[in-house]
Design a protein that fits this description.
This protein is α/β, with parallel strands linked by helices and 573 residues long. Helices cover 63% and strands 11% of the residues.
């Protein structure tokens, strides 16, 4: 996919707007001739209509009519350009956001999260603005410039030559800037990516930075990257700033030449007073057009650099390819999720998941136990199809994952992750995230079963109480209870709790698990480092170094799995 694909259905308007600008340009080019006629014919003593008020008023009304016609064409063009570019920006950001969500976590990490966020904001705006300037100035600037040259020659050959030379030199200045700046804009955007990444790291890791007294080092690094970005931006701004004084100087030099020729009047140059005024108007118009063209060049240079970055990102193909089969219906007691010899490596020599066999029947509760780095989170990523295995296969209801849509699989699974992901909004907004249409009864039931009702009920505004970004105004246990409430409120048949009760005391942990088990038609996968939290599950998988080293009930594993036995006894003692 390319970024300009977001213009689909708007191509006619993109062509229509610049063409309409021709009407405005023609009106502007005719006005100097009408003004010349008023001066030479109506105001000069040797004019054919000298002293005729009706003639002067008629010509003045013609100027007014041309101005109104040009103004109308400009307003229509501006509206169309604004509407099309805004719609394009909306669609483009939607495409970038969709691409961010379609890529797997590893693919997005490889590309760079901060870089992707810049595409969503800075680059998308640059391309949107480039399209806006393109529709407004692409035809106007060159047409008005060439038209001014032709009209100058019609008025006087010598004055026309002066105009041509001045505008040619201006065009050389603009061309040199155009040839130099696009590559530099790419470097500026790269510096901005680094700056955004450092800012993101600084905000998210502020506590860690402070705890190790690394504030000065981080500030120094930020200032270094910021200075690099400032240096590149200033240098590029200085290059672009040369356009205005150079073009103004060259055009004003041409005006001096025209005045010099006009000093000879009719004897040598053949320039009348009206002709001089007309050529002055044409030069002013052409200068304005050139300045606008320089702005167009600057905008298109930025837009081109951003377009290449956007195209490269949008053309990335996710390794996760959807199938076209519908989700099968699964009866109670039948296999719901299944992994068969699943393997996954993140590029190293060792496997993060090593030939894992896993089974979740409908209505079962499954426990997964393992230490840090044992492969628990990676196995969950496979089950949620955030990544696909390098070898082996996964099934939903006996149908391979590759034959199903990833969104359909995820629509059946609610997950509570280790890291609390709460958003700025109310309690209700956060809990109802997985089910925006949930009713009051469902909401209250989810809060009650997750024990979140205990503290939410104490708020004067209840479920409308505001939550700060990341849940900054909540404790760790309160965050986890709200996350569990969100998962329960979604009413999905599969619930995954990924070490999501670690901040709860043992009593609260037990109460939450008991409440969840009372819910009908919920298949539970409970991931924990606490053996006591999963000992009542129908089946327990013990992971170590990416491999399954034990499967069975609590009593069976105490007898047959040394790792489980050691973990349980150590925690109980």
């Amino acid at each position: 996919m390319k970024s300009l694909n977001c213009l689909k259905g708007q191509y006619a308007k993109v062509i229509f707007a610049p063409i309409l600008k021709i009407v405005e340009c023609i009106c502007e080019l005719i006005v100097p001739f009408v003004v010349k006629s008023i001066i030479d014919e109506g105001l000069s003593s040797d004019g054919a209509h000298y002293g005729e008020t009706d003639y002067i008023v008629l010509m003045s009304l013609l100027v007014l009519g041309l101005a109104l016609l040009g103004f109308g064409a400009t307003m229509v063009t501006q509206y169309v350009a604004s509407k099309v570019s805004t719609d394009f920006g909306f669609r483009l950001r939607g495409a970038v956001y969709g691409q961010i969500n379609s890529l797997s976590s590893s693919e997005l990490d490889k590309y760079g999260r901060s870089k992707a966020l810049n595409l969503l904001s800075s680059d998308s705006f640059s391309l949107q603005n480039g399209l806006f300037m393109f529709m407004r100035l692409l035809v106007r600037a060159p047409f008005l410039t060439l038209g001014s040259i032709v009209c100058s020659f019609i008025l006087n050959v010598y004055a026309g030559l002066a105009v041509v030379i001045a505008l040619a030199l201006c065009a050389v200045v603009v061309a040199l800037v155009l040839a130099y700046t696009p590559k530099k804009y790419g470097a500026v955007q790269s510096s901005l990516d680094k700056l955004t990444s450092l800012s993101e790291d600084g905000v998210s890791g502020a506590r860690v930075i402070r705890s190790f007294n690394k504030q000065e080092d981080e500030v120094g690094l930020f200032q270094q990257v910021s200075s690099e970005y400032q240096h590149r931006s200033d240098f590029l701004a200085k290059i672009n700033a040369l356009i205005n004084p150079l073009t103004f100087g060259l055009v004003n030099l041409a005006i001096v030449v025209v005045f010099y020729l006009g000093s000879f009047q009719f004897e040598v140059s053949g320039l009348s007073s009206g002709s001089i005024v007309a050529i002055m108007g044409l030069l002013t118009q052409s200068l304005t057009a050139l300045i606008q063209f320089s702005r167009l060049v600057t905008s298109l240079s930025k837009a081109y650099a951003s377009k290449k970055r956007l195209d490269a990102f949008l053309s990335l193909e996710s390794k996760i390819q959807d199938g076209d089969k519908p989700l099968p219906e699964v009866e109670d007691g039948k296999p719901l999720l299944e992994a068969n010899k699943a393997c996954l490596s993140y590029g190293g020599e060792s496997l993060a998941v090593d030939h894992v066999d896993f089974l979740l029947n409908r209505g079962e509760s499954i426990g997964i136990l393992g230490g840090t780095g044992s492969g628990k989170s990676t196995l969950l990523s496979l089950l949620l199809r955030f990544v696909d295995p390098n070898d082996g296969a996964l099934y939903y209801g006996g149908v391979p994952y590759s034959s199903l849509r990833a969104d359909d699989i995820r629509s059946q699974i609610a997950i509570v992750l280790q890291k609390a992901q709460l958003f700025k909004g109310s309690v209700k907004d956060n809990v109802a995230l997985g089910n925006p249409n949930c009713d009051e009864a469902t909401l209250q039931s989810a809060l009650r079963d997750s024990l979140a009702e205990e503290f939410v009920s104490r708020y004067p505004d209840g479920v409308n109480h505001p939550i700060e970004e990341g849940g900054a105004n909540l404790s760790g246990g309160q965050k986890q209870r709200l996350l569990i409430a969100r998962a329960l409120c979604s009413l999905r048949p599969i619930l995954i709790l990924d070490d999501s009760t670690s901040a709860l005391d043992y009593k609260s942990d037990l109460l939450v698990r008991t409440n969840i088990k009372k819910r009908k038609n919920v298949s539970l996968i409970l991931v924990s480092q606490r053996a006591t939290s999963i000992k009542d599950c129908d089946r327990i998988y013990v992971l170590d170094k990416g491999a399954v080293v034990g499967v069975g009930k609590h009593e069976e594993l105490l007898e047959n799995c040394p790792i489980y036995k050691q973990t349980f006894e150590a925690q109980v003692r």
